[in-house]
Amino acid sequence: MKPIIAPSLLASDFANLQSEVEMLNESQADWLHIDIMDGRFVPNISFGFPVLQAIQRHAKKPLDVHLMIVEPELYIEQFREAGAEIISVHLEACNHLHRTIQQIKATGAKAGIAINPHTSVQLLDDVIADVDLVCIMSVNPGFGGQKFIENTYRKIEALKNLIIARNSNALIEIDGGVNQQNAPLLLEKGADALVAGSFVFNSADPLQTIANLKNQA
Ligand code: DX5
Ligand code: ZN
């Protein structure tokens, strides 16, 4: 099975967002990964609804929206209306995670949970059967271009075991520091979807870089 490739627009040229999105439309990317940061859950601010709506107007692929915000439950419906196909909230940002997952599903979007590098996958035990995706952060969220954390491989294995044990359909997405070097082992360990920001957009030929990630053995 080929991996799902989700380039992160965080690393794109915001002054040429339309052409960046059109490039992704023509590429072998499966999803467009959208990083929303509020300056509270993470020490950085990215962009909000007007930018997301502008992306949606041009995107021909599902928008995979990664919410790095506190109290995400206040904005789920608005993100859905702005075009989110997948909505991932951080476990660490939710006091009532089970309720928030149901809230996402009620909008018709797919529900994802993102976990920080310090968060054990075992904390997902009681919700894993209810979610469509788990995003394992392989860097501390907040910035693109950071170094991949090696402990991620172990977390993928543990999560895969949990998914099987609980009969879950959740996809495993890896986010942060993904490149052509670590991608093969991530897939071997059980990753289904790879997010890549700087590796794609800082490369000389993003179309080719996406194709390489998609078609590796
Ligand atoms: C980090 C974001 C990532 C980021 C990945 O907080 O969640 O999606 O854009 O960027 P790279 O691939 O450059 O690590
Ligand atoms: Zn992300």
The overall average pLDDT, rounded, is: 98
When the domains are counted, the total is 1
Strand order of the largest sheet: 1-8-7-6-5-4-3-2
Provide the gyration radius in Å: 16 Å
CATH architecture: Alpha-Beta Barrel
EC number: 5.1.3.1
Catalytic activity: D-ribulose 5-phosphate = D-xylulose 5-phosphate
Cofactor: Mn(2+); Fe(2+); Zn(2+); Co(2+)
Pathway: Carbohydrate degradation
Question: How would you describe the overall organization of this protein?
Answer:
The chain is an alpha/beta fold and 217 residues long. It has one domain: TIM Barrel, CATH 3.20.20. Helix content is 32%, strand content 20%. Helix 6 links the parallel strand 7 and strand 8. It is globular and about 40 Å long. The termini are close together. 44% of the residues are buried. The structure holds D-xylitol-5-phosphate and zinc ion. The site of D-xylitol-5-phosphate (DX5) has 22 residues, from strand 2, strand 8 and helix 7. D-xylitol-5-phosphate binds next to strand 2, strand 8 and helix 7. InterPro entries: Aldolase_TIM, Ribul_P_3_epim, Ribul_P_3_epim-like, RibuloseP-bd_barrel.
What can be said about this structure in brief?
By secondary structure, this protein is α/β, with parallel strands linked by helices.
Itemize the secondary structure elements and their pairings.
Elements: E1 4-7, H1 17-26, E2 32-37, H2 49-58, E3 63-68, H3 76-81, E4 84-90, H4 97-106, E5 110-115, E6 133-137, H5 152-165, E7 171-175, H6 183-189, E8 193-196, H7 198-201, H8 206-214
Parallel strand pairs: 1-8, 2-3, 3-4, 4-5, 5-6, 6-7, 7-8
Bound molecules: D-xylitol-5-phosphate and zinc ion.
